[in-house]
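Below is how a single chain appears once it has passed through the pipeline. First comes the sequence as given, then the structure the pipeline wrote out for it. We keep one example in the README because the format questions we get most often are answered faster by looking than by reading.
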Amino acid sequence: MGTVTEDKRVKRLIVAIDGPAGVGKSTAARLLASRLGYLYLDTGALYRATAWAVLESGLDPADTEAVADLLPTLSLQMLFHEGAAVVLVNGRDVSSELRIPRVSSAASVVSAIPEVRTWLLPIQRQIGQGGAVVAEGRDMGTKVFPSADVKFFLEADPTVRAQRRHRELVAAGHSGALEETSADLTSRDTRDRSRSIAPLVPAEDAQFIDTTNLSAADVVDQLMAVVTAKL
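Resulting structure:
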């Protein structure tokens, strides 16, 4: 399916895609944005970048007060070049370091800190304020863009999710057992779904897609069918 032509993008929609890790959100959102000619906003990268800064500073991600005190010293930018995002922390490109396991684990802990979520909220909204964006994360449809034109919530079988994430890590050159990845996802799910601030829950008007038995192309086709009906 080709890219949507300019005359069909008059509405410049905001598309929100939420769901837990390993459901294929990132891949689906990136492909959908490419088809639409929209920006792809990976909000998880912003939380990972914050977690990276916390670890780089030698802080405990669970030390709420220390993390909150660090935030005013950080400059966080997400730049876009030919559809690809580059994340800068105090001017340093940390994009290649954001998906290593220790940063992923720290991001889940840091994201539960209210001050972090409050600090990142305007950054996310600023990126998406002009529309023509596919925003992917865990609270896009409920908190960041509650008025998004289209909302999706992706889910998948936990075993399949662990296998997918493990393959991603191996492909990126990170070693580790599948059992480790599965345990990490379980911990992240518990933290994300039970946190008091913006927990991982589907928006009331979100459309569910179970990606367990779907290829990335199948998922994008389903997303695209819904979005194009709104254009």
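The longest strand covers residues 76-81.

See the next section for the split statistics.
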